[in-house]
Structure formats: structure tokens, C-alpha cells
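USER: Fancy drafting a protein?

ASSISTANT:
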Amino acid sequence: MTLPIRGAGRERFAGIIDFSYQHYALGDLLTSQVNIACRATERGCRGLDLYVVVDPAAPAARAQSFITPENYLTHLDNVFPALLVSPMLRSIRLIRDPLTATRSLLTLLARRVPMWPPLSDHLRRRMTYPLGHGIINRFHGRHGYVPRLEAPRGYAGWARRFIEQRHPGRFLVCINPRQSRLTLTPAVVQRDAPLPEWYEFLRAVGRRYPDVHFFMLGGFAEWEHTLLRLDNVSIPRTMGLTLAHELALLVASNLFMGTSSGFATMATFSGVPYVITHIEPFFARYAGVAPGAARYPFAVADQHLVWRREDARLLLHYFQRVYHGRADAVAPASAGAAGP
């Protein structure tokens, strides 16, 4: 017997997030949802249903062996808000029983519901990483835009009220200088940001621009206590806030600045101005751009890519470029070929 799937049909698209081969990773989950939205839009679907599949006995892909039957719920809870950011989302189902997952898939097939990943890829239980922008770039080439992500469902109003009550009239900047080395599961730490350069940048902005306030995004272990001594920086996690609140603040802010990371992916697929630094050259072919490209093909105004490790001068230049709206600003000498 197959399970009834309320509302499923050819006018609704099915997105399958199966953690047996997909990753508990903010950037990957966000990119997947833009891929799904592109496919759904081109199929003429008016909404999408997410099917989140996790088997407690084997909860993660081989590449994330640190996620176990004993701790997977913590990892799932940490990333779950990232599944609530698509404007097309109509329902989300968490399935933790393999038999139920199989029956749900059979029901989708019987009803000929369009889905992503394609059935053949899903049955092979394999996905190539890093996730590229191929689907997204082709969609942009055909339609001139890409589906944008928004604050997690139910959090946009909270972000507006939070800003109005605590930081009215401020120019708000969300930052995420990647610090994997500070986490319990450090990975590719060569991509971590040079914190002394960021501290110098934050202090310089504090001296010159008293109307600017920064939100440091990321897990509770991903920042150093030096930030607590900077009056122009707030750390949402110290207020008891979560990833959902951080994503909502990012979308509501005036600018995002950070190294290539999951939060940078949220900015990439939003309409928020951004400066993403230290993008690794190998990612260029996955993004469908040349190494050193100043923008993604689908970028909008004041969305900048930097393919080198940042320093305080470079950060200040790009900040001022957005803050003052100087589209014709000249990059400083230290930016080299990385600037637009």
C-alpha cells in the first residue's frame, strides 16, 4: 500500500533531500533548493514539496562519518531552517523509516510527479560535490533571472521587528569570516579567514562610520571572544538565536561580507549586496565562470566576488563601495587582479 501524498500532482514539484548521500551542509542544502526551484519553474509547477529522508540507522553519507545514529538529530536540527527558505515551498515531510521512504517514492512515480534529483540519480544515491551552478546558469540564460531565496518561513517579520527595536536607522552588515578550525569537526582549514585583518577592518569602520553595525553569523564555536570587545559587532548566537534567525537577518541586512561558505551561498541566491572573498579557483568550473570573475552570471547590483585571501584594506574598499554606492570606485593596489 502506498501512502497518500496530499496535494501532490503534476502542478507540484517534489524535492528529495536524502541524507544517506546528500550532505548536512548549509551551502549544499541552499544550492539544492535553487536547483529544485529552477526545475519546478520550468515544469510550470506552482509549488514544491520537500521530502527529507534520514535513516536513523545510517544517517549520513560516507564523507560525513562523524554523523552517527547517536548524534544525527543534533546535526539535522542545526541545518533544518535552511530547508524553509524557498518561496515555492508548500510542504515539508521528514521521513525516518526506509519503508515509508520507498512507498512515498513509488507514490510520486505512480502520480508522475516531477522531481529533483532525477530518479536515475536518486536510485544511484550519488551526488557530485561541490554542487555546481549548471542548472542555475542555464535557467538564467533562458529567463534572465534565477529564483531567489528568502528568510526561513515565519522569520521575516521577526527580523524586521528585531532591527526596528535594536538597530533602527543603522546600515547593517552580516559577516561570516569562516573559522572551521574552531569547530569540533574542522575541515579544509586553509579556507579560514585571517581574523586579524577582519578585526582591523571592523575597528576602522567603527571609527569612520558610527551608523554601521555588524552581525557575526555562525555557530557558537565559530568566533573568538575578541569580537565581544567591539561595540559595533553583535553575535546572534550569544542572544540565544539560531540559524533561522541568522538567515533572516542576512536577508534583511544591507550587505553581506564573508569568505566562501554556507552563509555566502545564502547571499549568492538572495538580492542582498555581498562581497564573497577567498573563492578557490577550482570552483570556477563548477560555477560556470572564469577564475577571477567579478560576478556570477546571475548576480545583481553590488554583488562581488573576490578570488584571493582578503586583507583589511580590501575589505574596507568593498565596504565603502557598497556603503557609498560608488559603482566606479577604483580597487586599491593590494586588491590586485581580484577586484572587479
